[in-house]
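Hi, here's the filled form for the chain we discussed.

Project: internal
Contact: R.S.
Residues: 206
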Amino acid sequence: MFVNFSTDEVYGPAPDNKSFKEFEWHRPSNPYAASKSSQEALGIAYSNTYKVPVITTHTMNIIGERQNKEKFVPLCIARILAGEVVTIHGTKEGKSGSRMYIHARNLSDALLHIINLGYHGYDEWNIAGLQEISNLDMAHRIAVIVDMPLKAEIVDFHSSRPGHDLRYALDSSKLLASGYTYPMSFDEALIRTVLWTVRHKDQWLV
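And the returned structure, exactly as it came back:
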């Protein structure tokens, strides 16, 4: 079995109140997302032509201990601890973008569940976070956990990062209908990630 890690970005920006399901039309906004969409097409082709069992997973915004310091959560932690401004991607009108964050442990556990179901053709699965949260609200929650004030600035996401979608959202009802339950809640995952990173800040945030 070949497991292809794809991304929510293949679907493009999610309209309000819309969460993308598996096999929906791809509308990538940037070259990275387009390359992932092409990667999925190759998986389908190999499954059809050579009967290779292929699973494509879509997920987004993974968090967890030991994450690279350039990623949003450790970056927030570092800037909050230093009393610096946290840059939040949003609109010119000041609306923050939103994501569905998922802990690496939940992601790997869900993947093992999917693999153990067993497949012989091609299939797709969304592994989404447990709740949607704005990037600004995420930064506020991190500030509360470290017990320090948040200095935040919302910047126009198109100007600062062309092709960056304001909102990503996945529908993981297929995964939940298969009998799966995430082992860790969102709050537990975030607190665990932040506290570990703070304890190891001298090694991990430098």
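Let me know if anything looks off before we file it.
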